[in-house]
Design a protein that fits this description.
mainly beta; elongated
């Protein structure tokens, strides 16, 4: 995760919105924080208008050598309990970078 060269960078209030062709079962995000880890807020929707907050499991990894300046890697596993959710919203609540997003859905 540490040497991921392509990342989406955001700050508090920023959002990313995804829409899939089929119902979403879960999402996995690999993210990075420079200093303080401030968790994202995650939401699912079946219509793109009414969004419901999602639960997640977080795994924070050791950033390694502090001299090199690695960011703090954090993996989020977001579970969806909303039937037929095709929309996934990520809300930044602090400065962060997202390296990879995997959205698992049925077609």
């Amino acid at each position: 995760m540490k040497e991921d060269g392509n990342r989406a960078k955001g700050a508090a209030g920023g959002q990313i919105l995804y829409r899939t062709r089929g119902p979403i079962s879960s999402c996995i995000l690999e993210t990075f924080f420079e200093k303080n880890v401030v968790d994202f807020a995650f939401f699912f929707s079946s219509d793109g208008y009414q969004f419901y907050k999602a639960k997640f499991r977080k795994t924070q990894y050791d950033s390694g050598d502090p001299v090199y300046g690695y960011y703090i890697p954090v993996k989020y596993e977001v579970s969806n309990s909303l039937a037929d959710a095709r929309w996934f919203r990520i809300v930044f609540r602090g400065r962060a970078q997202i390296g990879r997003i995997r959205i698992l859905y049925n077609t």
